[in-house]
Amino acid sequence: MRTLKVALLGCGVVGTEVARIMTTHAADLAARIGAPVELAGVAVRRANRPRPGIPDELVTTDAAELVKRDDIDVVIEVIGGIEPARSLILTAFEQGASVVSANKALLAADGSALHAAAAAAGADLYYEAAVAGAIPLIRPLRESLAGDKVNRVLGIVNGTTNFILDKMDSTGAGYSEALEEATALGYAEADPTADVEGFDAAAKAAILAGIAFHTRVTAADVFREGLTEVTAADIASAKAMNSVVKLLAICERSADGSRVTARVHPAMIPRTHPLANVRGAYNAVFVESEAAGQLMFYGPGAGGAPTASAVLGDLVAVCRNKLAGSTGPGESAYAQLTVSPMDGVVTRYHVSLDVADKAGVLAQVATVFAEHGVSIDTVRQQGREGDASLVVVTHRATDAALSATVSALRSLDNVRGVASIMRVEGE
Amino acid sequence: MRTLKVALLGCGVVGTEVARIMTTHAADLAARIGAPVELAGVAVRRANRPRPGIPDELVTTDAAELVKRDDIDVVIEVIGGIEPARSLILTAFEQGASVVSANKALLAADGSALHAAAAAAGADLYYEAAVAGAIPLIRPLRESLAGDKVNRVLGIVNGTTNFILDKMDSTGAGYSEALEEATALGYAEADPTADVEGFDAAAKAAILAGIAFHTRVTAADVFREGLTEVTAADIASAKAMNSVVKLLAICERSADGSRVTARVHPAMIPRTHPLANVRGAYNAVFVESEAAGQLMFYGPGAGGAPTASAVLGDLVAVCRNKLAGSTGPGESAYAQLTVSPMDGVVTRYHVSLDVADKAGVLAQVATVFAEHGVSIDTVRQQGREGDASLVVVTHRATDAALSATVSALRSLDNVRGVASIMRVEGE
Ligand SMILES: NC(=O)c1ccc[n+]([C@@H]2O[C@H](COP(=O)([O-])OP(=O)(O)OC[C@H]3O[C@@H](n4cnc5c(N)ncnc54)[C@H](OP(=O)(O)O)[C@@H]3O)[C@@H](O)[C@H]2O)c1
Ligand SMILES: NC(=O)c1ccc[n+]([C@@H]2O[C@H](COP(=O)([O-])OP(=O)(O)OC[C@H]3O[C@@H](n4cnc5c(N)ncnc54)[C@H](OP(=O)(O)O)[C@@H]3O)[C@@H](O)[C@H]2O)c1
Question: What domains lie within chain A, and their CATH numbers?
Answer without folding.
Answer: 4-133+304-324 (3.40.50.720), 145-300 (3.30.360.10), 342-424 (3.30.70.260)
